[in-house]
Amino acid sequence: MAKSIKEIAQELNVSKSTVSLVINHKAERARISKELESRVLAYVEKVGYKPNALAKSLATGRSNTIGLIVENIGDSFFGPFALYVEELFRKKNYHVLYSSTLGDPQNARDIIDSMLEKKVEGIILAPTVDLEEYQRKILEHKVPLVVFDRNSPTVETHYVHIDNEVSGKNACDYLKSIGCRNFGLVTIDSDQPQMLARKRAYLAFCDTYGMEPRILQLPYQHLKQKGSRMLKNWAAKQVGLDGLFFTTNYLCILGLKVLRSAPENSYNFPMFSFDDHELFDILIPKISCIQQPLEPLAKTCVKVLLKEIDQGISIPKEYVISTKLIKR
Amino acid sequence: MAKSIKEIAQELNVSKSTVSLVINHKAERARISKELESRVLAYVEKVGYKPNALAKSLATGRSNTIGLIVENIGDSFFGPFALYVEELFRKKNYHVLYSSTLGDPQNARDIIDSMLEKKVEGIILAPTVDLEEYQRKILEHKVPLVVFDRNSPTVETHYVHIDNEVSGKNACDYLKSIGCRNFGLVTIDSDQPQMLARKRAYLAFCDTYGMEPRILQLPYQHLKQKGSRMLKNWAAKQVGLDGLFFTTNYLCILGLKVLRSAPENSYNFPMFSFDDHELFDILIPKISCIQQPLEPLAKTCVKVLLKEIDQGISIPKEYVISTKLIKR
DNA sequence: TATTTCTACTAAAACGTATTAGTAAAGATA
DNA sequence: TATCTTTACTAATACGTTTTAGTAGAAATA
Q1: What is the pLDDT, as a whole number, of residue A86?
Q2: pLDDT band at A263 (very low <50, low <70, confident <90, very high)
Q3: Are A97 and A133 within one domain?
Q4: Are residues A15 and A75 in the same domain?
Q5: CB atoms within 10 A of CB A119
Q6: Which residues of A touch B258 (CB under 8 A)?
Q7: What is the number of other CB atoms lying within 10 angstroms of the CB of residue A69?
Q8: Residue A192's domain spans which residues?
Q9: Which of A69, B71, B113, B230 has the smallest number of Cβ neighbours within 10 A?
Q10: Which residues pair with A195 in a beta bridge?
Q11: Domain named HTH lacI-type: which ranges (chains A, B) (predicted)?
């Protein structure tokens, strides 16, 4: 159906080389006459010829595709982040091949393998746990890599992130400032470094002010069913609890659903979220939060990756984006 | 860096063909001896050889990639939808190349062109307006196409959607049942068929019950700034307004922000959304809505597309997924 | 006029795979 | 022993591009 460069050449009675050179704006350099150049151009336009990108990539070694690996494209952090990334790359004529790991390392490994096989020119990755080996693999393949949101401390990569520890401290200080004296932490049962950092901040706060730590770790798998029950039971047992710090927005949402919609509505204390959400400012009461600025985050990832692609792989660096505490 | 089949062959002192046949499980058919087969397999495993997917696709004509074109991957309808799609295709060993049109036909056309150039094996598309020609182009290239959410009536494609007119009628009936006698419609100023159908349902309802139609159309571009102002001004002018029917969830959210957070809080009537949102059930008052079942929607799209890919392009059909009215 | 330089192209090789037709050697048949 | 089959492979071609080295003819130089 789609014509090849060979057919175009035959129909014009010229060589494939000529057509290829003209199409790629190398006519001048190759001393193709203006006359022939415009004849080729006109014909190509007329029949709507488009080169086969696979063949082109194979020949040039450039796929014009980058891989974006997130935890869950459907969630309110990674989804909008992905949109920014896509838009930024579109401007540079790159396409984005995305995939969600859902937190499963095996998914992540499969995704990475097939992205490497498809010869992506770079990868932006929010790693799962146990992914050190595969991050090294990416680097061994000389594919530029930028890691964001969380990293794996034992492998050196460019790393774009927020300062979780400082942000977590700010969150605790804020809760204290509005009167909470016995607030707990609800987090996820994984060893993702950013979650650990948020927990560390909370523990440090407890230590400083002599507050008794109350921590609940919920399972990422089947969070909705299992997590709801666990949270309900846990909360019922806490005496004197006067606030909750959730380490992600989806945990906070779960908390709101489980605790606020309880008929007695007995949990009338402040709930604070790490990560904003588009409806947090119209809930009653409104939800204060740590806001990760998505656009700067995305911009930095893209900028760093493009630089690696254009100028070759460089020594890994860290890029820290500062967060905002939104008081509501 | 990455080894090619040629190098593998040389190192094993066999031909490229042998290696290729073994790798693709055609050893038996090609009468390669068991002994040699396992020797090749072992070596391939040992050096971690992975075929170059671009070359493979070029040779076979199969890219194992499908294109997903949505309006906005960051929003709460398309994001989770995309996750389902991705998961379903992953199981069948396909990868998803996604892109957001942001409602701009020129974006959509560029995206379609480059997906065709990359030889995707099928496309799932939520079309923008003015995209008829390009949908025909996809079909002319013999690439299977499934359109969802909205379609372009003048081009025949497989079309997966909900019944917007019936759903719209149900929404109006519901508002009537809870006592609204003068509710308005807030929609978007585009000619997307699904939006028009929702509006038609509202107008028909007005006609049936002699209710005076009050319709506000907001611009998709710069919705947040412009739309907020327009909505505020419009609402202020409506006397006796006792309810609002928003034709999308992001419009409803805008409505909630603009009207509910008004200090006077003078707009204390029911607001109804077309499309659910994860926080609608913890707002006070809760938001009732028409719920589009994402998973069946995604499953149907994927199933239909896979069938087209496997069994060849067939006569276009419509697939109607029924909605649920969620009363809260 | 013999040599060099330009002009305007093209032939050929390469990218890494899949596939089909072919082939040499061994075994079976008559 | 001459022919046919079977076994176990391989050579060659194709997929659709890019790119570099090459070339024939015209123009310029000496």
Answers
A1: 97
A2: low
A3: yes
A4: no
A5: 20
A6: none
A7: 24
A8: 164-291
A9: B113
A10: none
A11: 3-60
